[in-house]
Amino acid sequence: MAKVELAPFRPWDDFFPGPDRFAKPDFADLAKWNNRVINNLLYYQTNYFLVAIVFFLIVGFLNPIGMVLGGAVVSLVFVGSVWAAENKSVVKNFKKNNPMLFVIAVLGASYMLLSLCEGVMVFVFGISFPLLIILAHASLRLRNMKNKLENRIEGVGLKKTPMGIILDALDQQEERINKIQDYLETKLNR
């Protein structure tokens, strides 16, 4: 197994270049859109973590108790859902067959628990808003050659990153790895 490495910070002009490197995703081809999002999440993960930390700090400064409560609830729901998916066959099958619905269910459960604690606004601005910004960037940012190369290296198991571990826990990389293996097999069979 590969050692976990932190991906390098991507320069601002690579992370947020001119408008020519952004495009609306093809909503008709969900597999292609999902591939773009996953690959951008892996390539720009350090930048995304920095964006999330900045939002966490701003909201944490304005409402520290609410942010700690929100972070604890979301962390517990995430850890509980991953544990349930590993130990309960019904949840494991649901997660395998509907990975995106599983992620939505985890976020929905977090939202429901926070609404009981009256921490919804902290959840929305401290946790959901950074996730929305990250998802929007990952959906709209076109990939470059360096992005594609880095993701292939991680896909074949030569390198493991924190975002890769998170995506594996949510079963968001299985299809991508299968596509890479199919691609490599077709190249080797020629």
From TrEMBL:
Organism superkingdom: Eukaryota
Pfam family, one: PRA1
Membrane topology: Multi-pass membrane protein
Annotated TM spans: 41-59, 65-85, 97-114, 120-140
Subcellular localization(s) per the UniProt record: Cell membrane; Cytoplasm, Cytoskeleton; Endoplasmic reticulum membrane; Membrane
Keyword Transmembrane: yes
One GO CC annotation: endoplasmic reticulum membrane
Gene Ontology terms: biological process: negative regulation of transport
Keywords assigned: Acetylation, Cell membrane, Cytoplasm, Cytoskeleton, Endoplasmic reticulum, Membrane, Transmembrane, Transmembrane helix
PANTHER family, per database record: PRA1 FAMILY PROTEIN 3, PRA1 PROTEIN
Family: Belongs to the PRA1 family.
Protein name: PRA1 family protein
Organism of origin: Paramormyrops kingsleyae
Taxonomic placement: Eukaryota, Metazoa, Chordata, Craniata, Vertebrata
